[in-house]
Amino acid sequence: MSPFAIEIGGGMGIAMQKTLKLIVFFFLLTACAASPAAMPTVVPATATSTATMLPPMPIDERLDAFMEKMPVRTPQPREALPSEGVVEFRILHWNDFHGELGEHVVDGTWVPGAARLAAFVKTEEAGVDPNQVLLLDAGDWYEGSSFSRPSRGAKVLEFYKSLGVDAITLGNHEFWFGMPRFYQIASEAEPIDILSANLRREGINNTCSDQRILSPYQIYELGEEQGPKVRVAVIGVSIGNLEVLVYNDAWTTGICFQTPAGEIINIYDQLMETEHPDVLVVLSHSGLDEDLKIARDLNAAGKPVDLIIGGHSHDWMEEPKIVGNTYVVTAGELGRAVGEFDLTYDRVSKSLDVKWKQEIFSACSPEDPNTLTFLEDTVSATLTKRECVLPNIKNPAYDYLIDMPAISESVGFWTLGKGIFPASESGLIINHVITSHEREYPYGLFAHAPSELKYALDGKYISFITEIGINETACGDGASFVVNLDDREIYRSENMLPSDNHISLELDVSGGKVLTLRTLSGNDMSCDWTIWGDPYLVKK
User: Fold this and answer.
1) Has this prediction a pTM greater than 0.85?
2) In sequence order, what are the residues at sequence separation of 6 or more whose Cβ sits closer than 8 angstroms to the Cβ of residue 281?
3) Residue ranges of domains in the chain, CATH in brackets
4) What is the pLDDT of residues 8-48, one digit of tens each?
5) Cβ(427)–Cβ(386) under 8 Å?
6) Rg (Cα) of the chain, in Å, rounded?
């Protein structure tokens, strides 16, 4: 989702929504004139591009031509698969890639690049049958980065084809080069399936017609070549009235988006009775809150699905949300993570075992050399790459606080981060190694101020060594660090700001019984992200 992507909808009619979205668009356009960096540049239709330009053609004729070339999939009668055997299969997914093909930094956020995504996907596919893995993208893959903009999405599509992506759904950014370009890029996507159950042709008086523009779903039969199979239906949807989030009527002329849950309910019975799928997956670009609502609505209607894989809201998750028996997930943004379902379907009991995890990339994540070669003409060689810093081997003469049980611990927000960030915010990635000012602290402690951590020393140590600092993306007015030995204060810093470099400490703790580490907020407690960098105690 764009950083200024607001939702306009509710009870107002489509005509009123379109009027309001034009007002919003021109307001944003005016604001961007004053601040060019505030909004991504959109290539106008007349701009020179490496992509082939289509000749002028009336909108309706262009849509007719597209639909003739890309007919909407109709249900295909199938026999149910035999009720025998167990099938193991895997789904890898990501969302809101925004064309971020190259490694770089965007507004202080490090973007790992397509080569790391490709390396991970290829590793997870190795050692299993190619037909046991499904690759899915939950929308906003098309536009966003300066790397993808010159080709107007063609380079991303080429990368996805080389990676073997199976299906994608639609985000609002898929329309930022206008409908002619959307029709062209969608018609060139094969063998990738572009799915949408709720994208409709606009009818009279600004209403949605009953005519779908894309296939609502696709069927995949997965499993080892010589073993039993599982039939998976992937249904694509986007948030209702998605066209409102594109901000310009000219970019979405002739289309509209219906309510996603309603459209899934409309096709559900025929899909189940005709295609006989074993597992239902919804690939949704609706935002996490809306995906949870979709899950609730489908369960309430007695038409549940097994998985909802989402995008649009750029949320980070530690574990799936579960509504009834429906697992709802999303995987951050900008190609910084890939979600992974490891699934087992028992054909006899018709039960699905679900395990989910998330791979979050770091500078030490491997890069696929073929993808790096593919990107040579797209990504500038002058881009600054983040240095991989592997964790230091722990010295047996030291005890690291990360390994020591605390007498007590309290933090202002979230939980204590031990070697990894405990949550995601601007510049922070949940479960990613603690990083501050280009330094990584794999044994560090991340404590949102105000915080207090107490450790038993029992007179066994002579020195306490650490680095202190505040993550540079924090938004607060700073915090100070205090170290107490028993009842005596042995160190107090000045108020440190996010812009300040780390400070190295080595403090004498000889004979001490209890070590207390405190961080104190300034006047503003907002995001006081204090870090004790790899703190350890030197043994006697």
Assistant:
1) no
2) 91, 136, 232, 233, 234, 235, 305, 306, 307, 308, 309
3) 14-43+84-374 (3.60.21.10), 398-539 (2.60.120.1060)
4) 333 334 344 444 444 444 343 333 333 333 333 333 333 33
5) no
6) 26
